[in-house]
Each structure stands twice: as C-alpha cells, then as structure tokens.
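> @MW can you paste both from yesterday?
MW: sure, first one:
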Amino acid sequence: MAKKYLMTPGPTPVPEEIRNEMAKPIIHHRTKEYQAIFKDATDGLKKMFKTSNDVFTFTSSGTGAMEASVVNICSPGDKVIVVRGGKFGERFGEIAKAYGVEVIALDVPWGSGPCPADIKDLLKNNPGVKAVYTTLCETSTATVFDIKAIGEVVRATGAIYVVDAISGLGADKFENDAWGVDIAICGSQKGLMIPPGLAFCSVSQKAWKAVETSKLPKFYFNFKKYKKAMDATDTPFTSAITLVIGLKKALEVINGKGVDNVIAEHIAQAEAFRSAVKAMGLTLFSKSPSNAVTAVNTPAGMDADALIKLLKTEYGVTFAGGQEKLKGTIFRAAHMGGIDREHTIESIKALESALAKMGYKFKTGSGVDAVTKMLGK
C-alpha cells in the first residue's frame, strides 16, 4: 500500500512508538498505576507550556478548553476584549456571547496580527475589562501573533490574559510564564502528536482570583473541581485513559529532545516548505506566517479544493483547505507534531505533480530543489 502523508493542522500523524503505547491493554483510572501516568503527563505538560502553574486536562476538543477559559473567570455582564483575526479568534467571541459576556472586538484583517498598541488603547478606554482573549497561531489563516508583546500590555492591568495555543504550542515559540500568560489553551491532536480528544488549560494565580469570583454556570469544565482532584493526583470525571497514556509517551519524546529543539525542527520544516512554494511561483497568504502551518494562495483561476482533492486521491498527500471566506482560494500545510522532514519533502513532490497536472506553469523541480537544499535529500 502506498504511503500516505497527513499534512493537516490537526490531527497530525501519530508516531508509531506512541501508537504502540496506546495499543497496550487498558487499565482502570482510579488506581495508583494510572495516577502515576497522569502525574508524569501533567509534569510533562508544564515543561512544554514552560509554566509552574496548574495545568488541567479535559476530555474534550480544544473548544472545550476555550469554553472553560470563559466560564471559570467571567460573570454575566463582564466585558472581555477578543482579538478576531480568523475563525478561531471569532470563536472566543461566540462562546463569550453565549454566556452573556459583553465582547469588545478587535477585528484584524485575516492574515495579519494585532497591534499591541490597539489592545492597550482598548484596555485604557474600557476600564474594568475582565480578560483579553487572543491566539498564538490563528490556524485558519496560518498567522502567528506577537503574544510576548501583547502580554507586556496586559500584565500592567487587572485583565486576565488568555491565549489559544491549540495549534501553535510546540511549533511556534511560546513562554507561558515569562510572557505573562494567565490561561493558555492547547489540544492533543496538533503539536502533542496524539489523536483528538484531550484539551488543556494552564491557570495562573492571577487567573485564580477571577475564578473565585466567577458567577457563570459551569459543571464539567469547572476549574475548582479539577484543582481539587489534581491535588489528589486524580481527575474529577472519567479520564480518556488511552489518550493520557499516549500523552505521557509523546511528552517523553518532546521533552527528551527539548522543547526548543523540537520547535527548531518545525521552524526548519516551515521555512523549507515556504521556500519551495515560493520557488514554484506561489505566494503566501499570511503577512506573519506561523511555523505551525503555512497558508498558500492558489494560482489565479485554480480551485484550491480541487487541488486538495487531487493531492489526496492520486498522491496520498492531505492538505487542509481555506475556511469561510478563504474557501477555495488557499490550501494549508502543517509543520507541527508528527509531521517531519519526510512529510515535508514528499508533500512538495506531490504538490509539483498535482499543479502540473492542473495546468499550472512553473519550472519543474524548482520546489523540490528548494526544499531538499534546506532539509537535505
């Protein structure tokens, strides 16, 4: 059977050693055996987040942790600033509105990052804002935001700084504590190299003060329940046992290499991929490209979704398409998690073949030459 290459920004490929770990017979979660696994996984998460704060694990998609970041710190009528530079920034606003929280939107052109000075002005003009919600990597546009600079603005105020790091963690540089992040959110199926089903929140002491006064309804995603259970090395509800076992193994791999070294690998793959598509005459969508995922404009008159379908059915390479207003105009290729050098090179080979088959004119081999020059043959 021909080898297939999953290049989507979640889920990413699950390495064999992690799959094998998850294939072992299941164990019961209310045991010392599982508690030791869960503790190791939690300690590993803290190293990856670069935090000394509590990190809670939920059995949910990343959106569950996004919801947790709202319901645990806000009360009805609170105001929050939401940076909306793509589909996932917009989601924060949708969740807040669903719970009766007033959203002050900072709309940023898709493909661009927010200006920290604009956030500073909004905080100055809206005293009492409970939180600022933003994104490390806006996956829908493949754009990285300057989380460090925004953190310098927010930490000088009483607002809680919340960052969606779901796709960026482990590929884009991120320093939870050093950058003043109060709640960071991640999901399992991206940089962590395991299947979908787990989500995480780091929670600072500053955020805990807001947790104590929050009056929004909450049950499953209640930070207090997770804190009480974690103090006993446990979880308040049934754990996704197999995924946590895989998480422990994945974090052993990542932290064994060193988080910064893993990020450097993904940066190299991202830069090589972008060099290749530019050599083929294609252009990037984002003005501030993330190293977790790259968005590429398709040539004029070419349907991105048709290109993606051809790549998958005839070449075994799966890219992601554009969302909402970008549908049919861009394709996205990831550089995170289990995506490695081989994935990157083979996907460029397939992209060259598919573009040529669809009638795009470019110098054959230019993309492959560029990517192998940077990553080696």
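MW: second:
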Amino acid sequence: MDSERRRTLSDDEALAAALSTVLDHAEATDGTVTWPGVADDVPAEQWGRLLETGLLVDAGECFVVDDPTAAREVLDDVEPDPDAVGDEAADEPSWSLQDKAAGVGALALMASYQIPGARDAVGSTMHAVLGPVEAALPFAVTVALLAVVVGGASGVLNRRLRDTERADRVKSRMGTIRDRLSDARERDDEAAVERLEAEQRELMSDQLLMFTDMLRPMAYTVLLTAPVFLWLTWLAVAPAAAITPTATVFPFVGRVVWTARLLGPIQVWTVWYFVCSLVGGTAVRRAIGRVTAA
C-alpha cells in the first residue's frame, strides 16, 4: 500500500472504518466481498470511495481488498472507531437547540412582514440602532451600505455553516456512479447494474438528508437580514416618522420616488437594495475567499 493511501486512511476515520468492515467480511468468507453483502454496514458513499482510491479492487462479480495484509497493518495503527461506519452520524447535519431557536426566530420575523403592528415594532426598535446612520447619510447610501454589509455577512455565515466539502464529494460520487451505471448497462452486466443502482439510491438518501444542512445557515441569515429589511420598509412607508426623503435624483433618470412600484408590489428602494446586495455581497465573498486561499 502506497504512502498516499496510508495518509488517506489515517486522516479519514470514516473511510478507515468502512475498510475495516469490508476487510472483516472478506476474511470471514473466501477473501472476496460484494456490495449487497456489506450494504447494511457500509455507506454507499464510503463504498464508492474505497473503489475510487483503489483500496477495493474489482474482481469480476465480486471485489477484493488490495493488499489485505498491509491494509490490516494500517488499520491496526489507525484503530478506526466502528461507530464511524454506518450512516456517518457524526458527519450528518444536526440542529442544536441554538439552531432550532434561530429557526423559530427566523420564521417569526418572516411572519412579521404580513403583520403591520409587528413590522412597525421591529422597525422602530431597529431605528434606535440604525437611526443615526440614516440621519448621517443619504437614504440611497444607507440602503447600499446595509445591503453590502448584510450580503457579505450572509455569505460568511453560509461559508462557515455549510459543509460544502461533503456536498461536493457526494455530487462527484453521484456523477461517477451515473457513468459506471451507463457502462454497466451497455455491457449488460446485470449484477453491476443492481449494485450501482443500490449505491445510487443510498446517495440520493444522503442528498435528501443534506437538505437540512442548507436550511441551517438560512435560519441565521434571515435573523440578520430580516430586521434590516423590516427597518428599511418602515422607513419607506413612514417617512414622516422616520424623517426619510421620499424621493431622490438618479443620473440619467431624474427624480425617482422610493415607494414607486416598478413591478407589482416591488418598489424602487427594494430593487436598489437587492442590486447593491448582489454586487456588494459578491465582492465581499470573493475578497474573503481570496484571503482564505492566501
């Protein structure tokens, strides 16, 4: 076994646990193993990675562990936790009490958009914090500044809370399975088709479970963006109370009323906010990405 695969096993406890399970099955029989024989104990994702790394070799209708003696020696040094195999519970996204509280708060804030009393309460409360900013800057600049800050912060939250590496790994594995499944069907290998379809179903289940990983950062993002957006809404609909100009002058366009509707309920200030959020947030995220890479 080469040094690269030794390092891979040492660094990846889940993969080492999967190899240990496969090796135990092989040693308990004739030295070979099949996917149906270990499907209940080894996740499809880890089975696929064993094949991709060459730790498991195709031997026709079955598979064999590449250099089982060396594999056992490495596993003895790694001492993989048997609980790491299975559904990879440690890697699956889970919502803590704090995450659930954030989700409830996000839903409450989203609901307040439709309740004038709640919207005004949030807006007036936020005005105590953001009012000095709005008083010192033009309304257009205030909206742009908040859009950039909130968009950038949301990008950072998504980057920190979302397991992009696992999502990319599952996506890559799904593409590999599709290619191999197509090849197996072309050569009428029914055993391989059955095995690959089982792996594909397992990975699809993993993708559904990972959907919660997308919702978790969204809850925190809403907690950040909703109060700011509610405050801006309050400023736009209650200019007398908020001391906010009702219109501004844009180059080549002229005087534009902030509450003018462009399409359905979408107002001018809303479009200005989303444009600034998209452009500024993207720039902030790219800058953070460059700093992280460096």
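> thanks! The longest strand covers residues 247-250.
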